[in-house]
Amino acid sequence: MSERIKNELGNLVFASGYLSEYRYYKQLILEKEYENIQNLTTNLREEQYESLRQMIEVEMIVNAVQYCSELGAFAVCVKNKNIIKIQNFLASLTETDIQFFFKNIEKCNPSLVSKYMGYHEVKIEQKDEYKYSLSCERYKNDIIRIANFYNQWYPLYLSYKHGLRIIPAIDENTHKKIIIEACKDNTSTIYVLPEAWWLVTIEIITIVREIYRKLYVPLIRKEAGEYLGIPFDSSSISTKGEDKAPPDPNRSIHRSISFTNPWWIHEHGEPNPFY
To answer: Is residue 183 helix, strand or coil?
Structure first.
């Protein structure tokens, strides 16, 4: 096996954990910062602490939008059967491709939904077709919820991402929190924010993480395992590959890749893959 392929597979397995978990834990960190902002420093005025809290609220929204965007990219990648070449595919994917996915998921028929889920990569037995149908419906409903959030807050995400063109403030008349967005045409857009507006991110982050854990992480590990020729018949499997032409001819290089919770694990009598 070439060094390039080994690197790709190693990065693939790493990505399956990193992409699926990082933003979830970042959300937990942001929530902790929000609750304990005054422990950061003791020399700020109360209004400055409040401005920091508002920016952490924005960070939570931005983090959740980015998590949704990454999930959308994964879904498109899976649909196009590009799991093994995921790095090159994600690098060439445009934001327009991801927006198209979220804007059109509600109109997708079950067959297309199943491809975004990776079900065109596995065999569904006839006795499981009803569960398969419910699984597709559940996934589609969850993606629609994610899409509604993504479409609502994507403009704010862009303003944050490109130049931090947003300013937290308080409306002097209503005393409500607002976000002032500096627009490219020298105008401003004002977002009037309800109390605890960021709480929706907790729900969205949780849904995205579950989709990764129940569908895409097992699929990535299945694809990588099949590529390496590893049987998936236990809950934890490891393999070692040896370079045929190591840099030092007197030394072999061994690489280990561990797979946990592979695709066909049975839990509580319910066979995977079902979302």
So the answer is: coil
pLDDT digits (tens, 9 = 90+) for 172-186: 898 888 989 888 788
- Per the document, the length of the chain is 275
Distance from C-alpha of 265 to C-alpha of 202, rounded to nearest angstrom: 28
Rounded Cα distance between 34 and 29, Å, is 9
Report DSSP letters for 117-177, one per residue. Answer: HTGGGSPPPGGGHHHHHHHHHHHHHHHHHHHHHHHHHHHHHHHHHTT--EEEEE-TTT--E
User: Could you tell me the two tokens for 73?
Assistant: 């990219």
> Rounded CA gap, 89 and 225, in Å?
20
Query: Closest by alpha carbon to 105, among 60, 136, 64, 131?
Result: 136
Closest CA to 15 of 69, 81, 86, 65: 86
For residue 136, count CB atoms less than 10 angstroms from its CB and return exposed for 0-12, middle for 13-18, buried for 19 or more: buried
Alpha carbons 177 and 197: distance in angstroms, whole number? 10
Read off the pLDDT of residues 189-212 as tens digits, 9 standing for 90 and up. Answer: 888 888 889 999 999 999 999 999
Rounded-to-integer distance, Cα 97 and Cα 69, Å: 10
* CA 234/CA 265 separation, integer angstroms: 8
Q: Closest by alpha carbon to 217, among 81, 21, 79?
A: 21
Q: pTM, whole model, 2 decimals?
A: 0.79
Q: Which residues have CB under 8 Å from 236's CB, separation 6+?
A: 258, 259, 260
Preceding omega of 273 cis (within 30 degrees of 0): yes
Contacts of 142 (CB under 8 A, 6+ apart): 207, 210, 211
Tokens representing residue 53 in the block: 């809290």
Task: Please report, as a single letter, which amino acid is at residue 249.
Answer: P
pLDDT at 257: 44
